[in-house]
């Protein structure tokens, strides 16, 4: 049965993205600081369809395992707009459901990625993603506001956080506005690494 998960990098002071996000400034320009551990791994570049990365270690194993368990994605319009012009074709290799008020026909890419544009809320996106996932997990890709909506609706089963050893000082916090009494939270795994600390949490709705 599908789990609802998210997998996000943050700074040591809790920021998911920087200030002034736009398609010309994805993630507010802080991706290199938060995600350096990922860019260092061959597994990440393999996923994009390119050669790259200096290492193929435990971090890379984590990337491959997360990719393998994911059967569908949900994301917000803002994240989609930041990535649409730069993402390689067939990046996600699965159905992606974009939460938006814009009415738009599905974007069918060469390969196995299709973007669907959902106008009637997170529950509708989740129902459609469950059908696409075929028992694999559904990953709430971002941005922070979209993740917060799913958390506050009590829909998340598990999440992974990768804490980069950097202070950003300002930006968009991942856990702003979260209902603090929605879940019982259990630490499932802590994996140290040179460039980040991986944390996996299990959530049980109260």
TrEMBL record:
Pfam name, any one: RibD_C
Record domain Bacterial bifunctional deaminase-reductase C-terminal: where: 3-182
A Gene Ontology molecular function term of the record: 5-amino-6-(5-phosphoribosylamino)uracil reductase activity
SUPFAM superfamilies recorded: Dihydrofolate reductase-like
Gene3D superfamilies: Dihydrofolate Reductase, subunit A
One Gene Ontology biological process: riboflavin biosynthetic process
PANTHER family per record: BIFUNCTIONAL DEAMINASE-REDUCTASE DOMAIN PROTEIN (PTHR38011:SF12), DIHYDROFOLATE REDUCTASE FAMILY PROTEIN (AFU_ORTHOLOGUE AFUA_8G06820) (PTHR38011)
Name of the protein: Bacterial bifunctional deaminase-reductase C-terminal domain-containing protein
Source organism of this protein record: Flavobacterium sangjuense
